[in-house]
Amino acid sequence: MQLRYNFRLCPNGPQRAALAQAFGCARVVFNDALRIRREAYSGGKPYPRTGELSRQVITAAKKTPERAWLADVSAVVLQQSLRDLDTAYSNFFASLKKTRKGPKAAAPRFKSKKDNRQAVRFTANARWSITTGGHLRLPKIGDIRVKWSRTLPCTPSTVTVIKDAAGRYFCSFVVQSDPQHLPPASSEVGIDLGLGHFVVLSDGAKIDSPRFLRRAEKRLKRAQQSLSRKDTGSKNREKARLCVARAHTRVADARREFHHQLSTKLISDNQAVAVEDLAVKGLARTRLAKSVHDAGWSAFIAMLEYKAVKFGRSFHRIGRFEPTSQVCSACGVKDGLKPLHVRIWTCQGCGAVLDRDINAAVNVAKAAGLAVSACGAQVRPVPVPAQRGEAGTHRDGQTTVAGNPRPLERRSGSQYSPAQVRVRPAVRAHQ
Questions:
Q1: Is the pLDDT assigned to residue 428 strictly greater than 50?
Q2: Whole-structure pTM value
Q3: Is 276 one of the catalytic residues?
């Protein structure tokens, strides 16, 4: 299976300038190539192939005074920008033919230097490396200090350098990893997701929703108000924008940390896990939209799915039209729809007093057939896409990077990447 490892980068002043130049050159090459293809489409001509585009927007452009500065960055970065354009067009045409799964992909658009996310990718041809001292050596940029949080399972072939809206830098590696089977567990669990209680388990346990966004609304409101008062294009407005971005980043990182801790614990303690396939997009159009987005159900379910494959557990997803809240988990009598304010009800068939959320979690487990087919059974591993972020640890221990020892020390007040969210000691042993 593929896993993505993200680590925080700490470039100095000249390195930040070199990275900004790399981001800009990759963006210019992408926009030039997109402009040529759009002009070819408007003129009724066939799309230029990647090789022809490379000669026009890279090789020939470097010899012109207007684009001579393209030679100041690695050529691999520029070639990968053209590959990104090809991927964007492939997804667009596949969506038109309805051969691509997932949401419909729009036509490629021009990139802007004001985009929230800037990224460049280095392949093995760029001869990047991890030094003995644990720095990331990039061509024409230098040795960048990395906050390593754990060991890479193998030597990656590519690295992506990312700058987010809050001005933080990350390096991202996608590596092949073998599943790490945990000792068999004797329990299975059904999960009912909600807003009041984030998770209700079939064994009766309830975990409250942290509501990170709701708790940070006042701070976000003040930051947004301060941003709206600044003049457009001023330096003070850029500072206020960074304050808003960092406030949102803290909320997103806290939510991701909570998801990782809970998903790892559920996967570690249970042999099989079952959840309900929720229509999150539909719920996000209702009056509960802010609470639905604050909960982050989709990200949590995705973590459960890939961690089940990683640790050799069984993951089940039941249909969203399964009447889990309408059927008595004791006798199976269907009592019909119930308003949301009805949290406890009495079954008309057997007279059992049922908790709405626990009853739904038990029905989720029964619908997945956990008690029948998942008793200690191992599932065949299936391909799982690499995740955008994965839990890591703080710099508070000793770890190795690609076989090289690298002492790690925690620094107070530092910002951690999505890959460096805190993991409890009881869970860290399995990651």
A1: no
A2: 0.80
A3: yes
State both tokens at 365: 């487990």
Active-site residue among 192, 257, 305, 390?
Answer: 192
Tokens standing for 53?
Answer: 């585009």
Q: Active site includes 208? A: no
Residue in the structure block whose two tokens are 């002492």: 407
Active site (annotated) includes residue 305: no
Residues belonging to the chain: 431
Which of 175-189, 300-314, 415-429 is the least confident region? 415-429
Cβ count within 10 A of residue 356 = 19
User: What's the burial of 97, exposed, middle or buried (CB within 10 Å: 0-12/13-18/19+)?
Assistant: exposed
Active-site choice (32, 188, 257, 276):
276
For the chain, count helices (H), then strands (E).
12, 16
Tell me the β-bridge partners of 206.
Answer: 200
Please report which helix (H) or strand (E) contains residue 53, including its range.
helix 50-54
Q: Nearest-CA neighbor of 255 among 37, 44, 421?
A: 421
What is the distance, to the nearest Å, from the Cα of residue 36 to the centroid of all Cα atoms in its chain? 33
3 state DSSP class of 161: strand
**SS3 assignment, position 295:** helix
Q: Does 394 have pLDDT greater than 80?
A: no
In the block, residue with structure tokens 């038990």: 362
Higher pLDDT, 365 or 16: 16
Q: Are 308 and 314 in contact (CB under 8 A)?
A: yes
Alpha-carbon span 81 to 258, nearest angstrom: 35
How far apart, in whole angstroms, are the C-alpha atoms of residue 320 and residue 301? 14
Rounded to the nearest 10 degrees, how much is the dihedral formed by the CA atoms of 110, 111, 116, 119? 140
